Automatic annotation (TrEMBL):
Ion transport found in the keyword field: yes
Alphabetical list of PANTHER family matching this protein: MAJOR OUTER MEMBRANE PROTEIN P.IA, PROTEIN YDDL-RELATED
Keywords assigned: Cell outer membrane, Ion transport, Membrane, Porin, Signal, Transmembrane, Transmembrane beta strand, Transport
The keyword Cytoplasm is annotated on this UniProt entry: no
Topology class, membrane: Multi-pass membrane protein
Leader sequence segment: 1-21
Protein name: Porin
Family matches, as InterPro entries: Gram-neg_bact_OMP, Gram_neg_porin_domain, Porin_dom_sf, Porin_Gram-ve, Porin_Neis
Organism the protein comes from: Crenobacter cavernae
Top-rank lineage group of the source organism: Bacteria
Location in or out of the cell: Cell outer membrane
Subunit structure and binding partners: Homotrimer.
């Protein structure tokens, strides 16, 4: 009996080495302390998680330059968040193939804006005032398409492109879900040369699945252009436009822009961003006082190659008819990548 136990123990000890030979564990832990004040209310202190995650990925060589690839990624909240967002595989999770033709993935796959863009938004926060609206709260992208197929091209002399199709994203919910019950088609384009980076995404989604046919259809596009100078300065600009067609046939247009400057000096990286949202237009007529102005300033300090600490202050001034109060926030952040 004792010998059997030893054999079992030796077998179990050997299994992880064999099973994990081609598996990489990776992730990001990011959290901070924030003081947030909405106009007309008292300030609130928060210990906030900024989307910490853990993942497992691997590949298998199939020969002739072809590989099977896979990834399972999940939320890993540092603040005890017990929502459905923390379920296993809730983030970028897929299986696919990669070779000279590019890469194809099936599953809960990040869209191009989420995985390849947002270079204009270097901020990590839970507060709206401490992260640019253009890539977060007022963007319909920068997320994952839960039931989708995505193709990424190889590099063509600095150019690349991505195609993605998402279908019936509410099919597993049991009840109709307005945000997820949609069909999405997306095109992403990129160009990199030296210090120059340019990105563009166009997406359209139509609520065609059951009850969703009664909802508005959307066309969204965003462009980002950045230049990283040799002496540590990085400048980025972005513009986005969202066009909705409502149930009654009316058209609504929402436009935003932002600029960001970062400057790295040794371990320090001061940062500044300005964001602008213009008045919403309906049937070509502006709805007065529905825009916003946003300012964020901060500095990061690299404690190591994988660990960064930072401080930031932001203000989000919403026009009086937007429907949300102005907000001021200050925070300290810590991020570790593994």
């Amino acid at each position: 009996m004792a010998m059997n136990k030893k054999l079992i123990a030796l077998t179990l000890a050997a299994l992880p080495a064999a099973a994990m030979a081609d598996v990489t564990i990776f992730g990001t832990l990011k959290a901070g302390f924030e003081n947030v004040k909405d106009k007309g209310t008292s300030s609130v202190n928060n210990v906030a998680d900024f989307g910490s995650r853990i993942g497992f990925k691997g590949n298998e060589d199939l020969g002739n330059g072809l590989k099977a690839i896979w990834q399972i990624q999940s939320r890993a909240s540092l603040t005890g968040d017990s929502t459905a967002r923390n379920t296993f595989g809730s983030r970028n999770t897929f299986i696919g193939l990669q070779g000279g033709f590019g890469k194809v993935r099936l599953g809960n796959v990040s869209d191009y804006a989420d995985s390849d863009m947002a270079i204009v938004n270097p901020w990590e926060s839970e507060a709206a005032a401490l992260q640019l609206e253009i890539g977060n709260n007022r963007s319909p992208l920068d997320t994952r398409l839960k039931n989708s197929v995505r193709y990424d091209s190889p590099d063509f002399g600095g150019f690349d492109f991505s195609l993605q199709h998402g279908v019936n994203e509410g099919k597993n919910l049991g009840v109709f879900d307005e945000e997820n019950n949609r069909r999405v088609n997306l095109v992403g384009l990129g160009y990199t040369a030296g210090g120059l980076t340019a990105k563009y995404v166009f997406a359209r989604w139509d609520y065609k699945n059951g009850v969703g046919s009664e909802l508005d259809n959307t066309r969204y596009q965003r462009a980002e252009v950045g230049y990283n100078f040799d002496f540590g300065l990085n400048l980025v600009g972005a513009y986005s436009q969202n066009n909705d067609r409502e149930v009654d046939g009316s058209k609504i247009k929402d436009r935003q822009a932002a600029v960001t400057a970062t400057y790295t000096v040794g371990a320090f990286t001061p940062k500044f961003s300005y964001g602008k949202g213009w008045d919403t237009k309906s049937a070509g007529v502006s709805a007065p006082d529905t825009g916003y102005d946003q300012y964020i300033v901060g500095v990061d300090y690299a404690l190591s190659k994988r660990t960064t600490a930072g401080v930031s202050f932001g203000k989000l001034d919403n026009d009086k008819n937007y429907g949300e109060p102005d907000q001021r926030a200050a925070g300290v952040q810590m991020i570790h990548q593994f």
